[in-house]
C-alpha cells in the first residue's frame, strides 16, 4: 500500500430523476469527524440561482430549517448519524418530492435541486411549521369556515394517524376552532378532519419530533351542500 493513500476509497454518485424536479446527490466520506453534513444548491429555470428558498430537514429528534443564500446554497452541519427527510418550500414552483437521506457513518452529502415554475394554486398544500417545544403539546392548529375565515369551526373531529405504526389519536376543536395533541409519538403523521356539517378533509401530512411543536396553518372546511364560486388568480 502506498503511504499517504487511503485504500478502497470510493466516491459514488446517485442521480434521481423526477417529473417536476431534478436531484443529484453526491455522497462522500468524512474522516476524523463524528457527525454528518448536508450541503446543497437550488437552481431555478434557465440555471438562475434561487435565494431565500426554505429548506426543512426533519427527523424524529428535531426539525431544522434554513434558507438558501444569495448563491442558492444551503447547508446543515453537525448532524447526528440518522435518517432525515429533506423538504423544499417555494411559492410559484412545482411541488418538490421529499428526499430521504440516511447516514450510517460520518459523511457529506452534496445535493443539487432544480425547481420548475408552476401555475398558482387555489388551494396549496398545507405545510406545517416547526417551533421550539416547551411542554407536552406537540401538535396545534385551528379550523375555520372557508366562506367566512373569521368563523371558527367548533367540535370538528381530528384524527392523527402515525404512518409507520398505524396508531391513531383523536381530539375535537374547541369553541374557537382550536385544537391540540399532547404527547404524540415522534414520526410521520397524516391528519383527517371531519364534521357532520362540513365536507371531510384528509391527506394533511406532517412530522412530529421530540424537540418541536408542530403547528399547522388554518385549515379551512366547506359546508356540505354549499355552492360557492371560487376565482383563482
List keywords for this structure.
0% helix, five-stranded mixed beta sheet, disordered N terminus, six-stranded mixed beta sheet, single chain, 233 residues, mainly beta, Immunoglobulin-like
Tell me what you see in this structure.
With 233 residues, the protein is mainly β. The protein folds into two domains: 14-114, Immunoglobulins (Immunoglobulin-like), CATH 2.60.40.10; 129-221, Immunoglobulins (Immunoglobulin-like), CATH 2.60.40. It is 0% helix and 50% strand. The protein has strands spanning 14-17, 22-29, 36-43, 54-58, 63-67, 73-79, 83-89, 99-102, 107-114, 129-132, 137-145, 148-152, 157-162, 168-172, 178-182, 187-195, 198-208, 212-215, 219-221. The chain is globular and about 55 Å long.
Distance between the termini: 66 Å
Order of helices and strands: EEEEEEEEEEEEEEEEEEE
Structural class: mainly beta
Shape: globular
Uncertain segments: 1-22
Assign the CATH architecture of the largest domain.
Answer: Sandwich
DSSP E strands, number: 19
List the helices and strands and how they pair.
Layout: E1 14-17, E2 22-29, E3 36-43, E4 54-58, E5 63-67, E6 73-79, E7 83-89, E8 99-102, E9 107-114, E10 129-132, E11 137-145, E12 148-152, E13 157-162, E14 168-172, E15 178-182, E16 187-195, E17 198-208, E18 212-215, E19 219-221
Parallel strand pairs: 3-9, 11-18, 11-19
Antiparallel strand pairs: 1-2, 2-9, 3-6, 4-5, 4-7, 7-8, 10-18, 11-12, 11-15, 13-14, 13-16, 16-17
Amino acid at each position: 500500500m502506498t503511504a499517504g493513500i487511503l485504500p478502497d476509497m470510493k466516491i459514488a454518485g446517485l442521480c434521481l430523476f423526477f417529473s417536476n424536479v431534478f436531484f443529484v446527490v453526491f455522497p462522500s466520506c468524512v474522516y476524523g469527524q463524528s457527525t454528518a453534513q448536508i450541503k446543497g444548491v437550488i437552481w431555478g429555470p434557465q440555471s438562475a440561482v434561487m435565494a431565500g428558498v426554505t429548506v426543512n430537514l426533519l427527523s424524529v429528534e428535531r426539525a431544522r430549517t434554513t434558507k438558501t443564500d444569495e448563491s442558492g446554497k444551503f447547508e446543515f452541519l453537525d448532524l447526528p448519524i440518522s435518517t432525515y427527510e429533506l423538504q423544499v418550500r417555494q411559492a410559484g414552483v412545482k411541488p418538490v418530492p421529499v428526499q430521504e437521506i440516511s447516514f450510517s457513518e460520518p459523511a457529506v452529502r452534496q445535493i443539487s435541486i432544480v425547481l420548475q415554475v408552476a401555475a398558482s394554486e387555489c388551494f396549496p398544500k398545507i405545510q406545517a411549521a416547526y417551533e421550539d417545544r416547551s411542554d407536552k403539546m406537540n401538535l396545534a392548529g385551528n379550523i375555520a369556515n372557508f366562506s367566512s375565515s373569521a368563523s371558527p369551526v367548533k367540535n370538528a373531529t381530528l384524527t392523527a394517524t402515525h404512518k409507520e405504526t398505524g396508531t391513531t389519536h383523536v381530539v375535537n376543536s374547541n369553541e374557537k376552532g382550536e385544537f391540540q395533541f399532547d404527547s404524540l409519538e415522534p414520526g410521520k403523521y397524516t391528519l383527517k378532519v371531519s364534521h357532520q356539517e362540513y365536507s371531510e378533509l384528509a391527506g394533511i401530512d406532517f412530522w412530529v419530533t421530540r424537540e418541536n411543536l408542530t403547528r399547522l396553518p388554518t385549515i379551512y372546511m366547506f359546508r356540505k351542500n354549499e355552492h360557492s364560486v371560487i376565482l383563482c388568480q
